[in-house]
Structure formats: structure tokens, C-alpha cells
Amino acid sequence: MSPSPVAPDLDAVMEACAGLLGLTNDPAWREPVLANLRVLQAAAALVEDFPLPDEAEAAPVFEA
Amino acid sequence: MVDSQDWSLAPAAGIAAGVASGAVGAREVVSAALARIARIDPAVHSFTDVLAGRALARADALDAARARGEEAGPLCGVPFAVKNLFDVAGLPTRAGARINRDRAPAGRDAALIRRLEAAGGVLVGALNMGEYAYDFTGENIHDGDTHNPHDLTRMAGGSSGGSGAAVAAGLVPLALASDTNGSIRVPAAFCGCFGLKPTYGRTSRAGSFPFVGSLDHLGPMARSVADLALAYDAMQGPDADDPACARRPPDPAGPGLDGGVAGLRIAVAGGHFAGSGEPEAFAAVARVADALGARATVEVPEAVRARAAAYLISAAEGAALHLDRLRHRAAEFDPAVRDRLLAGAMLPAVFIERAQRFRRWYRAAVLELFRDVDVILAPATPCRAPRGGQTTFVLGGVTLPIRPNIGLYTQPISFIGLPVVAVPVWPDDGLPLGVQVIAAPWREALALRVARHLEREGVVRAPVARLP
Questions:
Q1: How many angstroms separate the CA of residue B321 from the nearest CA in chain A?
Q2: DSSP letters along B235-287, please?
Q3: What DSSP state is assigned to residue B294?
Q4: ipTM entry
């Protein structure tokens, strides 16, 4: 169960997210940000590949 | 051997005993520390702020209290310094960032500074760090790099590089630091000193600049285990000002520190923690394991995935924290930090939720291990301190970027908040390596007891660096 059956177009993701979040999209930063996105995408795929029971709740503790 | 008159190199416990007995005054101790900082630190570059006036005034107040017959605290007259993400009254909390210099000066000291000073400690300054704590190198493009006191051409490690270097250089016996993914344990390993990353929620983070709220820890670094325990015991306890600080009573480590290791079940972490590093990293673990009679191995399940999940959460939570600064002042960040944070801002929320759900599973799986063992040993870093400015290294035959990979072995442990004492091992005439002594949640006292035993046996030690 990987996040997407096709390799995502991270360049398009970056473009869209920068617009959505109001972030500067300096051309000089494009490659290093993309490189980081690739690493994060791979980390996300690794985490998502692990089958979790539906009952596994997120870990951050909140005490009311 | 420390000259008994050279108070600048004395351990915290020795200073406190000396001040309590009247053998030395707090002013004399603090003056000696300030003089050593002025002489040595230009080469090491561990301090960003030296607070001579404040420190001497505090020392005089302690000496006056002693003269009135008031009881001396357990850290009476002990100089200490803090990573510059701790609030210090009167200073903008810079957290290694140029942007933060525009902040208003802090109105009061961070909670842990107040607790150490309540025990008699004397704050002498603030220490250099990697920008916004998103770093394992100890390098800082705004304030300059902190150098490893044992070899000035090498990295101090980060992000608490100033804390590790100041302790190793003998500038202070005690420093405070933070650890989100390894930022206490990495500089402790590279600089050859002791570091304690307590259980998540044990020490108050109130009045410190955050990085990743669900992973941030604060703890001490020192040149002896007794000094670590002294500081830790003075800092424990609930604090309503930190929403993650546990409502548990303190569990002092000092009283049982010399209890030894008889009967303890100690194992070495295998799998992820036994691969990818340099041979000397594993030799350091083997040396510690031999000294403890630890022959068993345990497999920490899914450690690689745990590291990936910690990596995702760090990038996303860090990005959320800095979003406004990324929008308006992106050019003022260290590019290595900015580029990771920008990428972190672009992660779908489901990735992070998934990582946090995995964290729950992983926590339960690792806690199962502690049914059969009391302490787990693992390397702190995959190698000794790299050269300053080095950007890649070769691990297991693969060339990798240094910055994210120095924390290979620390990230899967802090991910679930386990307490760790990083102990320094000197396998030869070269630089030191660190070993993580890992215990179950809330068992800091046990990890410190094991570290103390290793220190007493001469297996681990934190000598002051030979500097001009």
C-alpha cells in the first residue's frame, strides 16, 4: 500500500503547495526543495507500507 | 588530573562541596570560569553570549547568603551555560537563527534555568547551536561554526554543538541542551562528554524555543555522571507551563547512583543498530557491553520505519511552527534548514497522521522488549566527528548526505521518548564515540546508574580537551 501507484509529479506538488500556502518559490531553491520532497516522499511510502490496525490511534498525548 | 586550585576545571559536585565547606567562594569559581571562557572560547566558538555581570552578581549573592549562614544548594556556585534556545531574561531567544534576533528580549529565564539557579547554579552564558535545532553538525552560518575541542578541524555535532563543546573544553562543568532527534546525544558522542536525554515529558520545556513539540526534550550535558545526576535531580518535577510535562513526582537519581549493575538485564540492539556504521561505532558498543557482561541481543522492531516517521513528523511540525517566517523571511534562514522546512510544509496531512499512528504501534512493540531487558545499548552515531564543512560520508559503502544521517541511531529512540544516557568511549588515541544507554520510560535513574558503573570501571570518561 504505497501512497501512489505512479511516481508523483513532485514539481507540480511543489508549485501547487507554494501557491496554496503563500510561500516564496525562488527558482534557486527549487532543486534543493524538490530533493527534500523526494526524501520525505520515500519516508512516507515506507511508513505507509506498514499495515496498521484501525485501532492504532495517533500518539501525541492530550490531557483534558 | 585536575589541580585542586584550578576551580575552572573542577566538576560540579566538587565545586558545590567546595563552596558549601567554605574552601572556595562562588565568586572565585565563577571568575575562573569566565577567565577560561575568555581565553579558550575564541578557538572553540561555543558561546554566543557571555553574561559576566549577571554571573558575578549572582555569585556575590550566593557568597553573601553563605556568610549569613544560609544553607548551600546542591549546585551552589556551579557555573553553567545553556543552548541559546533557552530564554534568558534580557536576551532575545535566538535559537541559532538570525531572524530571532529581532525578538523582544525574554522577560524571564526558562524554567530549567530557574530550577538550576534555585539549587545554587550560576548561569554564565548562552551557547551556539544549529539553526532552529534542525541540525546534527553544530555548524551555524549566522554565528559561525562551533569546533570540536578535541580536534578543532572536526565538527562538534549538533544541534547542541555549543553545549557539548563548552563542556568538553572545560569552560563549564554543566550545560543545558535540547534533543528532538539526537541533538544531545550526537554532540555528546562527538565531543566525548556525557549527555542525558530524559523521558519525553520529564523535564519542563517552558521558556524554551520549540522545534517539534511532540519530540522535543531538554536535558543536561556534563563531564561526569554524578554531575549529570545532580543537574537532572535539580530540574525534575511537574510544570503547568509545559503542556507535555508529566504530572509525576521527581525520581531522584543521585541516591542510587552507585548501586552497580548486578542483576540488571542488559542487551545490545541488533538489526538497524548493528549495521551501516563504521566498525569503531560497533567496537565502542562491544566494549561497553563487555564491561557490563551483556551478551544478549535484542531486535528493535521496525527501527528504520520509526526513523522515517520521526523524519516526517519533524519536517511537518517544524514547517508548521515556522510557516509565517517561511512566508515572509525565507531568505534569512540557513538554506539547509529552509529547504527542509519548505518541503515539510508541502506534506499531505495524512502522511503525518499515519506517522503518528505508527508511533503508537512502535511504542507498544518496543515497550514489550523491556519485559525481558532493563537496558538496551546502541551506538550514538555511525562514526566519529566528521571534518568541519563535510557534507557527505560513506556508510556501508554508500555515499550519503551527512546532515540527516548522523542521527541514524538516535532518531528511532527519541521517537518514543525513551530516556538515554550517552556515554563517551575512547577506543584508541583518536576521537571519541558515543554509546546510548537506553532504559524504559521514566527509568532515567537506571540508565544513569549503568553509566556511573561504566565510568567507575574506567570504560567511559570525559576528559577536558587539551587546548592552549
A1: 13
A2: H-S--TTSTTS-------SSTTTT---TT--EEEE-GGGGSSS-HHHHHHHHH
A3: -
A4: 0.92
Cell of B156: 562538534
What is the count of structural domains for chain B? Answer: 1
Contact B354 A52 (CB under 8 A): yes
- Res B323 pLDDT > 50: yes
- Give B111's strand partners: none
Strand partners, B435: B379, B423
Contacts of A43 in chain B (CB under 8 A): 308-309, 311-312
B293, part of any domain: yes
Report d(CA A64, CA B109) in Å as an integer. Answer: 28
Question: For residues A59 and B69, what is the distance between their CA atoms, to the nearest angstrom?
Answer: 50
C-alpha cell at B83: 543552548
Taking contacts as CB-CB distances below 8 angstroms, the residues of chain B near A26 are 330-331
Cell output for B184: 544531545
Distance between CA atoms of residues B111 and B109, nearest Å: 6
Inter-residue contact B16 to B137 (CB < 8 Å): no
Tens digit of pLDDT for each residue in B102-135? 999 999 999 999 999 999 999 999 999 999 999 9
Q: Is B208 a catalytic residue?
A: no
- Active-site pick, B8, B31, B160, B183: B183
Annotated catalytic, B83? yes
pTM surpassing 0.95?
yes
The cell numbers describing B271, all together, are 538489526
Residue B161 is assigned to a structural domain of this protein = yes
Helix-then-strand count for chain A, H and E: 2, 0
Name which of B311, B323, B416 is nearest A21 (Cβ-Cβ).
Answer: B323
Q: Which helix (H) or strand (E) holds B220?
A: strand B217-222
Tell me if B315 sits within 8 A of B212, measured CB to CB: no
Query: For the segment B335-345, what is each residue's pLDDT rounded down to a tens digit?
Result: 999 999 999 99
Q: Please tell me what DSSP assigns to residue B440.
A: S
Distance CA B339, CA B371 (A): 42
Please check whether residue B300 lies inside any domain of the structure: yes
d(CA A50, CA B134): 27
Cα nearest neighbour of A51 on chain B? B358
Question: B340 to chain A: which residues are within 8 Å by CB?
Answer: 36
CATH of residue B155's domain is 3.90.1300.10
Give residue-wise pLDDT tens across range A5-64.
Answer: 467 899 999 999 999 999 987 999 999 999 999 999 999 999 999 999 998 888 766 554
- Integer Cα distance of B277 and B409 in angstroms: 9
Q: Is the peptide bond before B204 cis (omega within 30 degrees of 0)?
A: no
Distance from the Cα of residue B438 to its chain's centroid: 14
B159 in catalytic set = yes
Q: What is the extent of the structural domain holding B293?
A: 7-456
- Residue B467 placed within a domain: no
| Three-state DSSP state, B151 | strand
Q: Does A12 touch chain B (CB under 8 A)?
A: no
First to last CA, chain B: 17
